[in-house]
Amino acid sequence: MAVIVGVARETAAGERRVALSPETCKKLVAAGATVRIQPGIGAGAFFSDAAYAAAGAQLAEDAVAEADVVLCVQPPDNAAIAGLKQDAVLVGSLHPQADAARGEAIHARGIVAFPLERLPRTTRAQAMDVLSSQAGMAGYKAVLIAAQLAPRFFPMLTTAAGTIRPSKVLIVGAGVAGLQAIATAKRLGAQVEGFDVRPETREQIESLGGKFLDLGVSAAGEGGYARALTDEERAEQQRRLAEHLKNVDVIVCTAAVPGRPAPKIVSAAMVAGMKPGSVIVDLAAETGGNCELTRPGETVEVEGVAVAGPLNLASMGAQHASEMYARNVFNFVSLLLKEGALAFDWNDELLAKTVWPERA
After folding, report:
1. Which listed residue (68, 129, 196, 249) is catalytic?
2. Which residue intervals define the domain Alanine dehydrogenase/pyridine nucleotide transhydrogenase N-terminal in the entry (predicted)?
């Protein structure tokens, strides 16, 4: 019997993305799977039920009840997990360790969970890397929010009323989100700098037209991520950064350390030293923020400086974000399908290192 792949509507507040696009639905059907969707799953991303039906999907209100494989963007609530088929496979951004009750619900049903945020960061895994694909959209949207909040033009303009100098934009963190933010700010005509404690990011920042801000502190770590700074390194970084921020118009913060709260980089004292009318957009708001004054989900003004902590920015670009996410998910699920049937190769590190709980 063909594997049943099910997708239900996302229930998280404000979530517009979907884990299955009509394109990937068609590919799953071609791979021998039966695809069942709850009506309206793609409405937030502007994918119609008719488009899914044309791609071979079956529409059913209880689409995931008998599904062998369930796809999601954000984790289903605990009641929905309890209603899944015993031993079903669940694929998505699940974060089981962030919620003990969720982890217990997954364990109680014998769910084979694949939290895609655990995917090893290898060359082979790039086509399945949901963190990177969604971070790209987040970085793009963050700069547009900054441009909207700023009381200044981003580009230099020569007008009959005189010349307008370009805004000075600093992107903190040069991961995928940061690099996309640099590229977007540059396209908007700003004078762009990029800061990262990993010195190897200099070439990437400069390749996008940004200037690398060197504060004399290196925190190169393993796997392409930054390590935590020592107290002495952090103090020196803070001193130099505080001085530099006095002449910056816009900061977009994107720095993250996997599995840990976001590092605090921009202090309240630094914000107090910035020019009135300056803007900070903090992508790290969901994990505590890179700015000490960030309030997740809010935009506040502190001594004339706007500090925005937007949440789930990728959902703001739901259509393209969903297309990328769905391709990531399809590429991962393809590892589980052999001639239309489920087959787990636990010698494959992408499966073995992503599955939760980890297998002995």
Report:
1. 129
2. 6-138
Tokens describing residue 236 = 């020196």
Smallest CA-to-CA distance from 306 within 270, 278, 285 is with 278
Question: Average pLDDT, stretch 237-247?
Answer: 92
325 is catalytic: no
Who's near 235: CB < 8 A, 6+ residues apart?
A: none
| CB neighbourhood size of 225 (10 A) | 15
In the residue annotation, 121 being an active-site residue is answered as yes
Domains of the chain: 4-118+318-352 (3.40.50.720), 135-311 (3.40.50.720)
Write the pLDDT tens digit of every residue in 147-180: 999 999 999 999 999 999 999 999 999 999 999 9
Question: What are 92's two structure tokens?
Answer: 């998505």
Q: Answer yes or no: are the C-beta atoms of 251 and 231 closer than 8 Å.
A: no
Residues 229 and 217 sit within 8 Å (Cβ to Cβ): yes
Bridge partner list, 4: 34
Measured in residues, the chain has a length of 360
Q: Catalytic residue among 121, 239, 260, 359, which?
A: 121
308 Cβ contact partners less than 8 Å away, ≥ 6 residues apart: 145, 146, 149, 279, 280, 281, 282, 298, 299
Query: Is 334 a catalytic site residue?
Result: no
DSSP per-residue string spanning 103-162: HHHHHHTT-EEEEGGG----TTTGGG-HHHHHHHHHHHHHHHHHHHH-SS-SS-EEETTE
What number of CA atoms fall less than 13 Å from residue 77's CA on the CB side? 6
How high is the pLDDT of residue 259? Answer: 73
The 10s digit of each residue's pLDDT in 262-302 is 989 999 999 999 999 999 999 999 999 999 999 999 999 99
Preceding peptide of 357 cis, ω within 30° = yes
Of these residues, 126, 165, 207, 359, which one is catalytic? 126
Q: Is 129 designated active site?
A: yes
Q: What is the rounded distance in angstroms from the CA atom of residue 270 to the CA atom of residue 279?
A: 13
DSSP string, 36-57: EE-TTTTGGGT--HHHHHHTTP
Summarize pLDDT for 12-29 with one digit per residue, the tens.
999 999 999 999 999 999
